[in-house]
TrEMBL record:
Any Pfam family: BTB_2
GO BP, sorted A to Z: protein homooligomerization
Protein name as it appears in the record: Potassium channel tetramerisation-type BTB domain-containing protein
Entries under InterPro entries matching the protein: SKP1/BTB/POZ_sf, T1-type_BTB
Residues annotated as domain Potassium channel tetramerisation-type BTB: 7-78
SUPFAM superfamilies reported in the protein's UniProt record: POZ domain
Length: 86
C-alpha cells in the first residue's frame, strides 16, 4: 500500500505534520490549491511550509480533513476563522 507523503507545516508558529492527501482532500479548497502540483508556499528556516495565519485553530481544520467530523470543542474554534478567498 502506497502512503501519501508527510507534509510539515508551520502555521503562525504552530507546527503540524499531516499527509499530503489530507491537504488535498477537498479539491476546491484553498489548501488543496496551495498543495496541488508544486506547493505555492515559502519554507521556514527548518524547511517546513509556512502559512502566515493564526495557527491556534488550524488543528481543528486538520481534524476535519482527517476525519470529516469536528469534536464539539472545535466547532467554536472554527467559527472564528476568517474566510479567505483567493
Amino acid at each position: 500500500m502506497k502512503h501519501s507523503p508527510v507534509v510539515q507545516l508551520n502555521v503562525g508558529g504552530y507546527l503540524f505534520s499531516t499527509s499530503l492527501s489530507a491537504l488535498r482532500k477537498h479539491p476546491d479548497s484553498r489548501l488543496a490549491e496551495l498543495f496541488s502540483g508544486q506547493p505555492k508556499l515559502r519554507a521556514d528556516a527548518e524547511g517546513r511550509y509556512f502559512l502566515d495565519r493564526d495557527g491556534s485553530h488550524f488543528g481543528a481544520v486538520l481534524e476535519f480533513l482527517r476525519s470529516e467530523s469536528l469534536p464539539t470543542e472545535s466547532v467554536r474554534e472554527v467559527r472564528v476563522l476568517p474566510v479567505v478567498h483567493p
